[in-house]
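Ops channel
N.P.: pipeline sanity check, posting one input/output pair.
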């Protein structure tokens, strides 16, 4: 049995947090002792496993996330540095291995302290920010350098997809990173529970086709594409009156943190976009649905619309396919490795015409959702199951300790 610590910046309810939880559960079920160390853990805004099954220790939440909404990257690094120092000072002798993700600044500290470490890379951080001004470029210069410098201190670097692997190798060519792909898994148990009740939403009446978007309310997720594509779909089908439009509905279910300024702002931007397009009655917005609510949403929808471009991996398409629902996604990034175009959904260009065309296929052919959903379910069960994820992660750790 190994004693393993996870260092994660903020245990919210995003895809990165879901991966941490799944990895922690996988290693715990393999007989290891697991603790998650984080800078923030709101028990009212987290995955239930972090309250019921996993030990979580918080340190550094007193450090602000930003300075009046600015310099968020610097403060994220400061919070992670403090968390790492706290861990090393009080707990390091109790653990055999540390697994970090998102921010690699912990890695040199762990190495200098003689601790083995694994870094799980979701995507190069320096590619996630726009450097549109000289001031922003200067601001990011030391942060980007620090990311490249600290990455080389990991004993093993895991990545979530072949696409992410290529981006790490392209971004840090001089580091000779020995990356290994470990696909995330789907927590099947959370979707195998008995579904209780029916979808009861204020704006939804008798709907023939229900599209669902699940993603955090962040601008990089390109959520406006789903709303604009619905408007285009109405134009294609000459749905100019409310009665004909009401047959097709869109639900925007997004992760929403009331402490996150971007979540607050972008949610309002999307609400205003639907109103400006004249389809506010045809779009329902939900904030941070629970696991039970998400299960019901996936069960009730016709297809899932996944709009991020060059997404690192994307767990939502897997969850949708496991629930026998096809996925309409951009033909880039992780979805190219999970969604089979024309079989488990459609891979589209990142524009309203392409997405509306794919959506229209489900409007015209009511059997398409069922047929594609069945194929998608079989694909997820065979390739992205928990046991495979657990075995591959355990193998990586075993190799790490064998190569002392």
């Amino acid at each position: 049995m190994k004693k393993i610590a996870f260092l994660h910046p903020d245990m919210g309810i995003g895809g990165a947090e879901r991966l941490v939880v799944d990895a922690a559960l996988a290693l715990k079920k393999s007989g290891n002792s697991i603790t998650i160390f984080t800078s923030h853990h709101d028990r009212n805004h987290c995955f239930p496993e972090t309250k019921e099954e996993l030990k979580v220790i918080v340190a550094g939440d007193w450090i602000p996330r930003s300075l009046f909404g600015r310099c968020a990257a610097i403060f994220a690094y400061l919070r992670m540095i403090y968390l790492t120092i706290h861990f090393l000072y009080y707990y390091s002798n109790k653990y055999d291995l540390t697994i970090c993700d998102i921010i690699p600044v912990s890695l040199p500290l762990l190495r200098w302290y003689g601790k083995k470490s694994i870094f799980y890379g979701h995507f190069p951080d320096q590619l996630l920010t726009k450097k549109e001004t000289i001031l922003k470029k200067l601001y990011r210069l030391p942060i980007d350098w620090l990311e490249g410098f600290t990455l080389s201190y990991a004993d093993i670097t895991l990545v979530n997809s072949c696409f992410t692997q290529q981006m790490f190798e392209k971004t840090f060519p001089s580091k000779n990173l020995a990356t290994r792909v470990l696909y995330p898994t789907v927590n099947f148990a959370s979707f195998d529970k008995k579904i209780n009740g029916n979808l009861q939403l204020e704006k939804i009446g008798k709907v023939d086709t229900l599209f669902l978007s699940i993603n955090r309310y962040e601008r990089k997720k390109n959520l406006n594409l789903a709303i604009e594509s619905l408007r285009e779909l109405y134009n294609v089908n000459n749905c100019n009156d409310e009665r004909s439009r009401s047959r097709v509905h869109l639900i925007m279910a997004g992760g929403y943190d009331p402490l996150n300024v971007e979540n607050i702002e972008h949610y309002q931007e999307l609400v205003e976009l639907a109103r400006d397009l004249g389809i506010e009655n045809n779009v329902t917005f939900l904030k941070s649905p629970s696991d039970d609510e998400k299960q019901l949403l996936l069960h009730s929808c016709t297809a899932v619309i996944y709009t991020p471009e060059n997404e690192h991996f994307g767990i939502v398409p897997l969850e949708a396919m496991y629930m026998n629902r096809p996925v309409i996604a951009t033909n880039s990034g992780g979805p190219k490795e999970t969604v089979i175009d024309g079989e488990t959904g459609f891979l589209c260009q990142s524009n309203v015409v392409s997405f509306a065309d794919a959506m229209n296929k489900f409007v015209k052919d009511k059997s398409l959702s069922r047929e594609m959903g069945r194929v998608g379910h079989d694909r997820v069960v065979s390739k992205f199951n928990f046991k495979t994820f657990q075995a591959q992660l355990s193998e990586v750790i075993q190799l790490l300790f064998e190569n002392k």
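N.P.: looks fine end to end. The first helix runs from residue 15 to 29.
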